[in-house]
## 1
Amino acid sequence: MELKTQPFVLNVGPQHPSTHGVFRMKVLLDGEVVVDLEPVFGYLHRGIEKLAEGRTYTQNIPFTDRFDYLASMMNNLAYVLAVEKLARIEVPERGQYLRVVMAELMRISRHLMAVGFLTNDLGAMMTPLLYMWREREKVLDLFDMVCGQRLTYNYMRIGGVSQDIPPEFLPAVDRFVAEMPRFIDEYDQLLATNEVVLARLKGVGILPADLAINCSCSGPVLRASGVKWDIRKADPYCGYDRFDFEVPTGTVGDVYDRYRVRIEEMRQSVRILEQALRQLPPGEVCAKVPSLLRPPKGEAYARIEASTGELGFYLVSDGSIAPYRFRVRSPELLNLTVLREISRGWKIADLIVIFGSIDVAMGEVDR
Amino acid sequence: MNAWDYFVNLLPNVRSSFVEWLQGLHLASSLIVFLDSLIGIILILLIVFPVVMAFIWLERRFIARMQLRPGPNRCGPFGFFQPVADAVKVLTKEFIMPAKGDRLVHWVAPILMFFAALMVFAVFPIGAGPKGAFSDLNIGILYVVAIGSLGVIGIFMAGWASNNKYSLIGAVRGVAQLISYEVPMVLAIVGVILIVGSLQMGEIVGKQTIPYILLQPLGFLIYFIGALTEINRSPMDLIEADSELTAGYFTEYSGMKFAMFYLGEYINALAVSIIVTTLFLSGWKGPFLPMWFWFTLKVFGVFMFILWMRATLVRLRIDQVMAFSWKGLLPLALINVFITAAEVLAWDSWMPGWESFPWPFVFVNLAIAVVLIVLWAKLFFKPGGGRIEAGGLRDRYSQGYGVNPQAPVS
């Protein structure tokens, strides 16, 4: 008797514990091996880009909170930068520094989540994630102080930030900056010296640099492949050129390198935070901007180095109070486009880990 | 027999007294055997279920503490009645049956797994003497191994009957793991059996002047890893792999049918803790305190070690698990059997009475274990990798297959 084997299609998602939201993959499996894969997007599509065309520029800021809901400050920042570029508004020094402080705190929190959820995808029973969560809570407490919110901050304003920091914020953030390197070292040591973690991460899901560039990847996914590309260095905004920091890169482009880059970026973020807090100038936090802003006709594209990559907002103004076109360059969507290429040939367990290492929040992928 | 001695070996003595009382009644001997068996079964159930409840509670609280959270703390003091609340919940839940599933097999699977898990307890000695175990079979450990691998049939039936691809992958993984790990596991037990010279569980404990974890460090490691795989505990919990397969083989189970799998896994964990205690940690033996106390202490200690691993380790991949067994554990187990056999032969002929002073052999065996493990780790294993080359796949699936039939795999 001859036994015949046949590949079969496994439907991973949209409801699946490891799809980080509602993402669906149609996976063709040969036993456990992923032969082919088709990502299906759009389960969280809310039409924000269209909705934004019917609201004023200021009213759109809360929408941006809902893109990458784990990094709302970053989305706020990218959007207001685009509006400021469109309306040619100068931001006061203190406002710029506060933006940098918030963005870097957000980056630490987001990377903590990325590493934590990666270990969860690896099969650790929540333990590393909950320790990461503890540190993230501290960041959320800091944001709670400045804007009263813990998830959707709506803190950035066109021309600066909504309000100045309260007096108790600076000591708290100093304490956070002082103790954070120790925690990062500890977590890195616990994870990166674990033989089982290494066996699951090293050499898995290799993304070659040329493929990463061709697929327009950005952020840690691109840098892990060895491409030194960071908007904070390449196209500085908010005065990032005033700070001294490194751009960590990987060498192989595997899942381990992506993990490594994220850990290193957290260390660099702490460095930036230290400098920004030391140099924090006094003064206004927000420029005088009319509440009903009518930018001149034209278009503007502003981009920032969000925690997941190059987050850009492209705005077209027709001179009215609402944007004529509101377009988001979503780094997570573009990073996800390489998923099929880098996960083929790996086991189903690796597919989950590779997907986790790309680090997406479906709110931004589907918008 | 004074009161303290009675208390020290409590449960077996209770059973002995019961049998003596029955014999005093001048009943037919077959009836006495029947009643003795009945009381044994009831005792097993009375002990196993509370202990499993305690395990569930311990797992939730202990892991919660490791994860910086309080764990269940609403039901009773320290949340101790949480398992009871869980039981009430699962008992009142609906049985959901997949539309195209195999109804009969879907029903039989959890029952099979549950009772296979329970049956093992017949031979575990929890105290000294002929009544120390429900039935101290002279092939005790063989019985444990044989019954212990029955449960996987239930797992495979569940995966098949659910008509769900996740369940099926989980079930196939379960069978693959069992086949791979049963061999080194049994070979690791053989080391202990060679030293003792008996398969009887009571005698294995009785002969241990020192815990055999010291005389058989390599055997202990191999057995423990194999056992972890067989009871689907981290880092080998691939069968239920919640991040990959949602819930593995019991994805389609609900209500009491699910609870039977759930309880079955804890009963298996208890069984493994007891086997490790019996074979490698000198069972109920210990100074000063009652036998049942030492036994319980060791069993809970082993279980907490398993919990600790579950809370800290990530999951291995299926090919790594397989390779670890066939390339690592199996050769090491064979070498261990060979060395142990040679040692037993040598000690018995050259140094009769070595058991009263076994420390030289402890150090020799420890050194051998360390050298072998380091050697194997350096020679055969390197972290990472494991891709099936896409080129080969492309050749195999160049025509006809693809997620989307319109777009063939390039």
Note: Chain B has 17 helices and no strands.
## 2
Amino acid sequence: MKRNMTGIGEWLDHRTGMPTMIRQFLYEEIPASSGWHQIFGSVAVFLFLTQAFTGALLAFNYAPTPGDAYNSLRYILTELTCGRLIRGLHHWGASMMIVVVVLHMVQVFLYGAYKKPREATWMVGVVLLLLTLAYGLTGYLLPWDNRAYWGTVVTTKIAGQAPILGPYLQRLMGASGGSVGVVTFARFYGMHVLLLPPATLLLIAIHIYLVRKHGVAPQPGDEAVPKQQFYPRQVFKDTLAIFAAFAILFVMAVAARVPLEQLADPTDTTYNPRPEWYFLFLFQFLKLFPGALEVIGSVVLPGLAILAIILVPFIDRGQIIKVTRRTFAGAFILFAAVGWTGLTAAAVRSTPPEDKALAIDYSAPTDWMHLTPEEMAGVAYFREENCIACHMVGGHGNKIGPDLTQTAIHKDAAWMIAHFKRPSAVRPGTSMPPIQLGDAELNSLAAFLLKLTPENASALENTPDFATQGALVYKAGKCAGCHVVNGAGTQFGPPLNGIGKRQTREWVEAHFADPRKLVPTSIMPAYKLPQRDLDALTSYLFALPDAPQQ
Amino acid sequence: MSETTSRRGFFIAAIYGLGGIIGACLGLPALAYLLLPPKARKEDEWIEAGDVTKLAVDSPVELTFRRTRVDGWKVQSEKSTTWAVKQPDGSVVAFGPQCTHLGCAYHWDEAKNDFLCPCHTSVFSIDGRVISGPAPRPLDRYATKIEGSKLLLGRLHTSAEAQG
């Protein structure tokens, strides 16, 4: 057996030369000073390959056109096994890759490893950093939610400010005049998956070739000690670092839910776009240059900074490479880090806190949006009465009582109400306590429970509190006497689905207080609601789907 | 080579071990993602396909109707057809519109009194049995239900399922 394997190895070596090549790669001699500080390059390559892998997996279930992009991503997140995990890996992997590439550069900078003869290696590396940022910029648009759309509107406007080249850059991005649309989307997607990956692969190959050609940069004193081999000691260190990075990435993908906002809405005038965290410092930097000076902060200075970084090996021609004596380099990195942190912190501070209570997570099932107000009020009572303490709903809760999603146990509403009032009268021997609610409340509860199925159970857990509270206010105000929501109610006044498209929040709230002031012919009575109820009701109405589900 | 053999062995084992864990953590979710079916969504149970009173006994008619089909992230409303045959007892047999060989559309041959598939000349009798040709099983049938004069179609079954 072993002889056979050697035979195959020899044959392969003779015909392809691969085994020898791999051996030469692994047993490459590296300076004795090499060690933990040189792991970042390997981690960056690993993260790039992980991004390529998860990206390809996402592409297998993703339709790259606006509208479809959003729906197919929702399908990945809500319907496919591990879809959320894979998107999480891709999303957080992108951030992590930026961090690691920058750390790699900082290490090379501090150790002066860009000095003669390694100038070209450094410059190719800077281009790789720019490519990494380009992935972030183009990938940001692909979910086609509000965040993606409005973020890209700002990006293309900034590109348009570039002196002379601006309009051409915008046209290249498919966003002539700064209007983001289907062409922009196609260009960004094409860049992200067709142009950037092969360019990155090629440059990584050149980068590694150059590292090998010139050898890993030594530190003073290395000449006196015998060299070590790359494999297995350094490979072990690289692998351990890769493993640590992957462990962090995996935990983030599992634990930190990547949100999906609502479908991109170009008419949304209230949206406050913010770039990805690693671009926040540029966003804040821009604010330092008001009016006509803006182009300096958005294009000129960032452009000069990139040029300066590329030319670092020619600017710093000193001989010192001992890291502890490179005080100027160290001070420069410190200055850059403080500047970056300060700008980023200022940008975060200036971001109005997102109203978490009103945020809807579209990366989870949203079946709750299609419940009638009566059923939605039932969800509120279900939560108030803590039914979940004894009953299973879609795999959650306790097993003392029956699983309420089983349609087999659903009886008619009258039976259920009788059961709620005196459980033991309808089901002798049951340990369920009577529910102390009035008929109207029990009616809602029954309506909701009759709607429960194994398919929509998980969606009901996602019902935000403002929706259940809003439905209670809706019910208390007897709104269904004149209005239709999700197909239920009386069509006396206008249907309330899609009200968010027709009116602003302020208008709706003012209208509750005094309908006739805004619509003189209105016969709707005024509702003087406490602020909390008003907020819940308005948010609930604005979260309704534009059209009832068929 | 200053390292002892055992130290070297530990490095190599760790490289393969950690690599294997990473591979499994990426590979297994990828397989689940690609191979497991999406969460089931409800499809229409019974679809109205036509008027039974317009059918004559033992005279197959092709009925066209619309049905919704869940296709990935889309719910499509699409045209579909069935060959409906009214039975002497008043019930209706509704065949799926595709030949059981390779899925071509077959038609009722008025002159010969049988269903003929133009692709590979499979021939089926009026009750769906294979008379000749390469078709491996009788024509598939929809579950049917009659409400008033309306013919309702349910799921499509292969003939083996329908019998069992």
Note: The domain at 367-543 of chain A is CATH 1.10.760.10 (Cytochrome Bc1 Complex; Chain D, domain 2).
